[in-house]
Specification:
Elements lengths: L1 H16 L10 H9 L3 H13 L3 H13 L7 H12 L24 H19 L3 H15 L4 E4 L6 E3 L1 H17 L1
Antiparallel strand pairs: 1-2
């Protein structure tokens, strides 16, 4: 009986925490909720100092804000800079891979490898869209494909449905980049 109660209690806690639970990246959840509810200015004001402090989750998001001109002037150079900062934040270990149970790490760096891979994908896409540095775009997307190992990369759960970058996104971009490179 105690075993069943323990199991059900554990399952309840895990289900209750889900994405709505405590986030080991302070400011991330607040940023994403503000962003998805239409308060991009509030989200920008939260994310900018966090990115400047070196937090990978914030650097990725700041790149997105600059690339799209959300609550700031559109600035491709700044977007590129912030994507590069996030992309460089890879580390080893369960914490960096987004595993909570039994993992420990520095606050603000939870799941940093997903953020780094998404930053690489976004940077490759930016290079493709801006028709610049296509060879580097190919290298970036090849790295994302290799490191994701055929799996989706989790981005955020504060949207109406959880967001993932799918392997098909990576393959589609690689094919587009290859076509542009072949025309050069």
């Amino acid at each position: 009986m105690k075993k069943k109660l323990f199991l059900w209690t554990g399952l309840f806690i895990i289900a209750a925490m889900g994405c709505a639970g405590p986030n080991p990246n302070p400011g991330e959840r607040t940023t994403d909720i503000a962003w998805t509810s239409g308060d991009s200015k509030g989200a920008f004001n939260i994310v900018k100092p966090q990115a400047e402090a070196g937090k990978p989750w914030a650097q990725l998001r700041l790149g997105i804000f600059y690339e799209n001109g959300w609550s700031t002037n559109k600035d491709i150079d700044k977007a590129e800079y912030w994507y590069k900062q996030a992309a460089a934040q890879k580390a080893s270990g369960d914490w960096a891979e987004g595993k909570l149970v039994g993992a420990v790490g520095k606050s603000g760096y939870f799941n940093q490898n997903s953020d780094a891979r998404i930053a690489q994908f976004n940077l490759a896409q930016l290079y493709y869209n801006e028709n610049k540095n296509l060879a580097e775009a190919k290298n970036l997307i090849d790295t994302v494909i290799k490191e994701s190992n055929g799996k989706a990369i989790f981005f955020c759960c504060e949207f109406s449905v959880s967001r993932y970058f799918l392997p098909s996104h990576f393959i589609d971009l690689k094919q587009k980049i290859q076509k542009k490179l072949a025309k050069q």
